[in-house]
Amino acid sequence: MTKILLTGATGYIGGTVLDHLIKSSETSIKHLTFDLLVRSNDAAGKLINAYGDRPPTTSSSSTPCPGFLPEGTKAFIHGLARRIKPDTPIPWFIHISGCTNLSDRPLTATAYPDREWDDANGNAIYEFLKSEDARDPYPQRTTEVGVLTLGEETGIQAHGYGYKVNDTANFDWVHVEDLADVFVLLVRAILEREDRGVGYIPSGKNGIIFPALGRVSMIQIMEEGLDAAFGAGVLPREDTPKEEEIRLVGLQEVADELIAGLLDVAERGVAGHKKMKGTVARMLLGWNPTRLEEDWRQAYVDAIEVLQSRKGPSTLETCVGN
After folding, report:
1. Mind telling me which InterPro entries this protein's record contains (predicted)?
2. Domain for residue 277, yes or no?
3. Which of 63, 96, 154, 166 has its CA 20 to 30 A from that of 107?
């Protein structure tokens, strides 16, 4: 009997992945039951109401667990390792992490604006992550390295105005719906292949996949965000510039306003260079993303609508608890 446990099922990415899995018409998926770990009975109730014709099994916990807690992911892997028996399929652990793990620190260390990582060489990426984290520990990266290393050791198959602080920071992007499709394809490969994906899907120290579609600079993100805000009438306000404007600000200001004062996260996220070339999902899984530039621009409008429906600012501190 196949069992799937999904954590973060009420989050932006996790919720989209769950929706794609539950609504999949693929024979290997459509009859599965999903076990979900959520943070409250209220969240569990919303999921059951949303999927009344196929309600997932839920368990609630009041303790938030962001991706910055290495011991949390290790506990999952150790638990899966206890299930390994000669007559049972090898368990898989699919873990999502962030591109800042590969970012340079251009304001306080050496900048590498032209460096690009290719997921076709997962082991080289792992070795960089491992050595970089030993030299300059970064909690989110520590978590990812722990997942990849422990997975291999245990036999688990793992896997108002705009602002800028420099002119070269970048992100590679993918629409969340296309990202969710990657998870569905991974689950299908594990369930449908005779080898259960072992030796086919990259795992352990090679288990890295970049579902990247486009590349954008932080300045472009700010420009497009301002376009959407002015277009929606959210800006200008009485206390803000009357024209679209991007200001050069200090790293501490960005960290304090958006990232709970975490300078290392702010530098990697807002100032860092993190170019990623994704080939594995297309080559091995047949991933064919369909949400392109028009959908990318629409995402700004959608985000503004969501933010307008919320009370209070959205920061790292508020997001971690949601």
Report:
1. NAD(P)-bd_dom_sf
2. yes
3. 96
Is residue 46 in a domain?
Answer: no
pLDDT in tens, 305-322: 887 786 555 554 444 444
The mean pLDDT of the chain is 87
Closest by CA position to 43, among listed 4, 8, 94: 8
Other CB atoms within 10 Å distance of the CB of residue 131:
11
The pLDDT tens digits for 237-291 are 888 999 999 999 999 999 998 888 989 999 999 999 999 999 999 999 999 999 9
Q: Which structural domain, as residue segments, surrounds residue 160?
A: 64-320
Contacts of residue 134, defined as CB under 8 A and 6 or more positions apart, other chains included, come to: none
Instruction: Find the CATH number of the domain harbouring 185.
Output: 3.40.50
Distance, in Å, from the CA atom of 34 to the CA atom of 88, rounded to the nearest integer, reads 19
Q: Is residue 4 part of a domain?
A: no
CA distance 36 to 296: 29
State the Rg of the chain over Cα: 20
The answer to whether position 56 is within a domain reads: no
Report yes or no: 294 and 133 within 8 Å, Cβ to Cβ. no
∠221-222-228 over CA atoms, to 5°? 90
Tally of domains within the chain: 1
